[in-house]
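Reopening this ticket.

The earlier resolution said the output was attached, but the attachment link was broken on my side. Pasting everything inline this time so it's all in one place.
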Amino acid sequence: MRKSKRVLLIVAALSLAILDYQLSIASSGCTYPTSLDSWADKVAGDQLTVADVNQFRCAIEQIEGTLGYTGALRFPVVTGLGGGQAIYGGVNASGSLTLGSTAHATKGVILFGGLGGYDELNTRLGIGTTLPSVEIDIAKSDATSIYQTSAVTGGNGPSYVGQRARGNLGARTAVQASDILLDLKGQGFDGSGYVLSSLIRMNALETFTGSVRGSSIEFWTTEVGTNAPARVALMSGGYGLGLDAGSSFINLTEEAANPGDPGSGIGAILYMKDDKFIIKYNDSGTIRFKYLDLTGTGVTWVHTTSAP
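Inline output:
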C-alpha cells in the first residue's frame, strides 16, 4: 500500500475515533453544552451548530497536542462553492447571526474580503478601508457617493437626520441654547491634511421643551486669500437674514462690480458699491437703481437707470 493511502486511512481512523468517543475527549479538557446532540444523530442534510463545530475543533486540537502539532489547525475555513453559498444563523423566525473578530476581550477587525471591515474595538465601519477613523468611513481613489432612493405614494421622500441630546443614550436630556444640532462640513486637502473650508451649521437657540424649540442655520465660507472660515449668514426662526445672537443686522461687503439683473418684477437686489447703498430693481425690463450715498451728511435717495 502506498504511503499516501496509509496517511488517508490514519486520518479517517482518527476522525471516526473523534466522532465515536466524544465523551472521553470531553473529559480530557473539551467542554460543550450538555444539550449538544450526539454526532451519531447527524444525517445527510442536517446543519451543524456552532457547538458542533467547536466540539470537533476541540477534539482535533487534543490530537494535535498529542502529535506535537499544536496550532497547525485553522478553524473554520469555508471554501467557496460554484454559484455561491449562504451562511445562516438559524432556522427559526427572528434568528440572528453573530460574527466576532475574536473571543478575546480585546476586539479586533472583522474583514469583508478586500472591501473593508468592521472595527469592533472602536465600533467603526470601514468601506474601502480596514482602519476606519470615524463611525462610518468611506475611502476610495475616485469620487464617492451615497444614494438614498425612495418610491412612495405621498408622504416623505429620502431624508438625512442628525439628532442631538445631552447626557448619554441611557439618560438623555434636552439640548440647550448654542448646542450644535448638525454640522455639514466641506474640507479640502492642503498638502499636509484635510482642513475645513465651508460649513453649514444648525444650532439650538434655547433649551428645547415640548413647546419651544428655537433654532438657527449658519453658513460659513472662507474668503479668497484667507485660511479660516467666517460666518456669512444666519437665519433664525424661519424668518430674517443676519440675526446673530439675538441682534438683527445685515452685513454687506462692498461689491467690486455691479451684480447681475433680477427677474422682471419678481425681486430686488440690495448691495453696496463705491460707498453707496444700492437697491436694484427690474421694472418690466427697465433696470432702476435707488441709492443712498453713505458718506457725508444730509444725503437723500437718488434715482437713476444707470448703475452708480
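Reporter confirms the inline version is readable. Residues 5-10, 16-28, 33-37 have pLDDT under 50 and may be disordered. The chain has three helices and 16 strands.
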